[in-house]
């Protein structure tokens, strides 16, 4: 049976944890600490194919945008730094793999950032939102 495994451990672990995290996130459950631990390994230690690394960056970015029920909703986030961090992760995913499919989400983040900037300039939201 052991001879049937044709993959290296980093790839197997990355795929297994990714699949688990995806299922957890869709139901609004926490993906930590497992996803974060493996994500650090994927970006710092393991040499995986670029599409695999890109999907980790994409998932990490989308995780920052998830509501408690698991929906991805940039329009409900008021933290500018969180939105910017998500955009940076999605940008990295796109730079690693041209078919990362992050353009629409990145556009929604940009729209939300502009809206928060407009609200802050009109005094509708606190100044701390503008700088955080």
From TrEMBL:
<protein>
    <submittedName>
        <fullName>Putative phage protein</fullName>
    </submittedName>
</protein>
